Amino acid sequence: MERSATTKAAPEPGSAPFQIRGSVQTILSLRLIAPGDPDFFVLLRDRVAHNPEFFRDAPVVLDLAPVADATPIDLEAFTAELRRLRLVPVGIRNGGPAWQAAARAAGLAQLGPGGRPNVANATGRPEPLRQRPTAPPPGAGLVITEPVRGGQQVSCPDGDLTVLAPVGHGAELVAAGHIHVYAPLRGRAFAGANGDERAMIFCDQLEAELVSIAGIYLVSEDLDPRLRGKRVRIRCDGARLSIGPVP
């Protein structure tokens, strides 16, 4: 008796064992101004030691704009040093062809340019941006009424993000425009996520782990202790963030 051959039906559309989707993820940007400086990793190690929980296993992109025309360093050795600090280098941005070739050899991705960084001048001090970024695209924004708990991320790619409840440790807020928190802010807030330096962060109680506007950031250890627990406004002031009380 012959057995009839069994045929496997074609998979239904959308039944693949994976999905590829766009997402918004927090990636630290490490701007390489003088990567060959003998004190580079000494100073970076000291910075990481100030907030090891924040930096541990954090993905990092190397911003090469200040050295885009320079001869590439040994990126394999450089990224190995970063991993010893428990940082996870994932890619480069703003690199020229030679840097891109070095990145491919080191297994690093090539990310989009992002916001234009401040480039150090001959004195080593950052120069202010000469061209202001365009305003974020218009949008209705987003209002959140529930608490944002640790491990949660709320993203508003068009417009402002307003949160009417506490933002817990380990939570993240990301917005193209301003961020308003009418409650304690204990997690991380990333305003001006598309590079708009005119964005600001407002909160009723400043207890943040990190605040960032257009890629310029401060971690909790850098915050003025006199402003902790206070109602504040955070804005860009050239190449740094300025934090002041709200009257």
Summarize the model shown.
The protein is an alpha/beta fold and 247 residues long.
What Rg do the Cα atoms give?
22 Å
Biggest sheet: strands side by side, in what order?
5-7-9-11-14-15
Please provide the ordered H/E string of secondary-structure elements.
EHHEHEHEEEEEEEEEEEE
Helix percent reads 10-25%
**Could you say what the CATH topology of the largest domain is called?**
Pectate Lyase C-like
Structural description of this entry:
- This protein is α/β, with parallel strands linked by helices.
- The chain has two domains: 28-110, ACT domain (Alpha-Beta Plaits, 2-Layer Sandwich), CATH 3.30.70; 142-245, Pectate Lyase C-like, CATH 2.160.20.
- It contains four helices and 15 strands.
- It has helices at 40-50, 52-55, 75-84, 97-105, and strands at residues 28-31, 58-63, 87-93, 109-110, 142-144, 153-156, 161-163, 172-175, 179-185, 188-191, 201-206, 210-213, 216-219, 232-237, 240-245.
- The protein has a six-stranded mixed beta sheet, with no helix packed on it.
- The relative contact order is 0.10.
- Residues 1-7 and 115-138 have low confidence and may be disordered.
